Input
Amino acid sequence: MSDCQAKSCCAPSAPVEPDALAVAGAAGAGSVFRIENMDCPTEEALIRTRLANLPQVTQLGFNLVQRRLSVTHTGPADAIQDALQSIGMHAVPVAAAAGAPAPPAGRQWKQARLVLGLGAAVGTEILAWTSGSEHAWPVILLALLAIGSTGLGVYRKGWIALRNRNLNINALMATAVTGAVLIGQWPEAAMVMALFAIAELIEARSLDRARNAIQGLMALAPDTATVRRDDGGWVETDAATVTVGALARVGPGQRIALDGVVTAGQSFVNQAPITGESMPVPTAIGHKVFAGAVNENGSFEYRVTAGHDDSTLSRIIRAVEEAQGSRAPTQRFVDRFSSVYTPIVFAIALVVALLPPLALGAAWMPWIYKALVLLVIACPCALVISTPVTVVSALAAAAKAGILVKGGVYLELGARLRALALDKTGTLTHGRPVVTDALALGGEAGASLRLAASLADRSDHPVSGAISRYWKEQERTPPLAAVDGFEALAGRGASGRIDGKRYWLGNGRLLGELGIAGPDVAATLSRLEGEGKSAVFLCEEAKPLLVFGVADTIRASSREAIAQLHELGVRTVMLSGDNAVTASAIARQAGIDDARGSLLPEDKLAAVEDERARSGIVGMVGDGINDAPALAKADIGFAMGAAGTDTAIETADVALMDDDLRKLPQFIRLSRRTAAILRQNIAIALVIKATFLVLALAGSATLWMAVFADMGASLLVIFNGLRLLRRESR
Output
């Protein structure tokens, strides 16, 4: 069994949510401990139960993948360590930002004892077979040597579990081996304990592979960076000590140590660790670069924009680790099932051992032996370990592909996704619209264009950016005018006062609200919208002055992504603030099923609710503040282009690290593979357990077979879950 299984995966404790002990507003010192033998949610429950009795503990945080416990407490931490030690949890204080831990001390000695114990167990079997006696003193001595070499830790942990009313695998195995000894099955007792130790070692190594998938991400960013000194020279220094604003340099073939913005030079950079995009991207002055990316060729300098612990890569790693701490629905079900399954099978074992001899006069030894086999089968280790290994593997695989998933619950929801709502600007399109038309409707065109550009320059909307760039490209004079009382009008445009006069810059809806949309305006609006363009008007209180035709081109990857989504049976809906005619034209170009235009933020939220009622599980894809309500309302909120964006990484359910919509079908395929493997693992574990339960009651199963079945089932579900680490081709 793994460390997880060998300690408390079988405990019949009710699952405890991670914040169950949290006290609102609690304050105090913070300590972080590494606990080498903390792997499972049931161990988390055991720790919570023990620490809940300490008055100085106010809050607990668990990272089972990294085996870390965060404790907020008052007073010294010694009492906490003592309490953990009393339940067999050796807690070592560590720095919260420490890297991957070194291998546990004493591993070589443990392996030597395992070899010794296995040799003694094999010798026991050989002596018993050659001598024809399982009770000869040489057989007994070798059996005791095998049990002592491989099982003393099992007995110690089993006693701790029983003392804390926990029926874990250690308690069950210790009871089974002791029972085998008492009924004279010395060779079998020795071999069962040795096989159990082998299973523990194999599964611990297998689980480390899933754990190391995240630690591999940590190793992507180099520990050192080449930075410029005050005297103009360059020096290699610890990346963790480099401050924001420092100037760093990276050479050909080197990994970038810190996030930054290029200030000199150019190159091609492989950003696959961050965005999942395998093709290197051209990088020049003004472009962002990310820690962990590889500089393919050329050399460049960059200004550091984030510290070592605040880089995009560091935030990704933290987000994935936190996601691993949250239990998916399947995992919560498995935890509840195992808390009922173990005591039921334990009770059946007691009945099997006592009822036939007492009630029917049957021989004691055969029925006690059957009960001992049932004790081994009673541990649902394979069932319990299958879900977290699968979820961790899927989260790590997604992160490597540039998809940041914030928890197992979203992986499971992704497998059931039936509809996807998408914002238009910056999601389906490049998000960089350009002005195609500029038509004067009243007044002097040059003066009106200056007024419009002055208002647009104050707004952060992509369409406003297009108008501002259009003005600058015209190299117009005089400079932009000062704007007083600027106001952004959500879903409509903006307004402001220039030279004491109020002007508005916005869409047709805004003109309708102002009551100045005449026949000429309607005709111009209809023509531009029919061409798939957005019409933006500059107007004063009484009349429109200028109209812009603004178009945004669809990404080539968007059409491919929509086609793949349809192949997966996912309905697509475009939600846009543009008018319905323009929205429909863009939707036709992209191949989207349905388009809804002229939507305010609250309208997008209502549209998501309508789509949920129609289709079921619905996702929302967006990249702007206007999308926030709809993103929050959807079952899964997808943030586009999250690389380098703190808010998107921290708040989105799923963050696509670049602007490639093809990651959406990739996420859905990964979710469906994850759901399928979860079902397979549960079926494997239950079928094997049920089969051996029947064999045990029929007297056809031995302790050897039970241990092999338990070990085999656990290894099967672990390796099945680890298949998700193989990167899916795009």
Observations:
- The chain has a mean pLDDT of 80.
- The chain has four domains: 107-214+320-380+704-716, 224-310, 392-429+554-670, 434-551.
- Residues 663-698 form the longest helix (36 residues).
